Please model this.
Amino acid sequence: GAGVSQTPSNKVTEKGKYVELRCDPISGHTALYWYRQSLGQGPEFLIYFQGTGAADDSGLPNDRFFAVRPEGSVSTLKIQRTERGDSAVYLCASSLNGVGSEQFFGPGTRLTVL
Amino acid sequence: GQQLNQSPQSMFIQEGEDVSMNCTSSSIFNTWLWYKQDPGEGPVLLIALYKAGELTSNGRLTAQFGITRKDSFLNISASIPSDVGIYFCAGQLGQSGGSNYKLTFGKGTLLTVNP
Model:
């Protein structure tokens, strides 16, 4: 079966631009997570959705970052006024539900802000 | 954000050797996990540990959940070239409530296996 997919795989943008990163979770998975992985670091939590609602957005670094999951499946991470420090790999993961079930990761979107 | 203390940062070993890596935290976790990440891919779960003191094996991999719930180690026996990659530990609170299912990762151990 299909795993978690993320598009685009690579995104290059200029400082100050707006970007959207998409995540398609495994079908039937109600929980969805976004993580950010900087070079040489482990992934860091950004936001967690249970269904359509953001159950925990405590990892979003500032109000330039926003994520939605309007129908409880596909999620979009939105970054406004991008900065060079936003350059990283953005990973999406999904799990069957939020109760300690395994998180399956997508391949990530590599964002480069020039 | 918080990251766990993972060591060593990198290892270069000969095929057939055993390798050990560990992870410590200043706070308690109820679940410890070990992941492997290949270039251009997301992390893949290797082993999950749910009880303090638990020792779990998965093929050539063995991992333990420390008694204090603040540490874990991963051993790989008889390494092979395809073991090359970055290994991450991760802790999870795992109690009821949305925020307790997020993973807190270490910085990773880069493993190189020389054939």
In short: The mean pLDDT of chain A is 95.
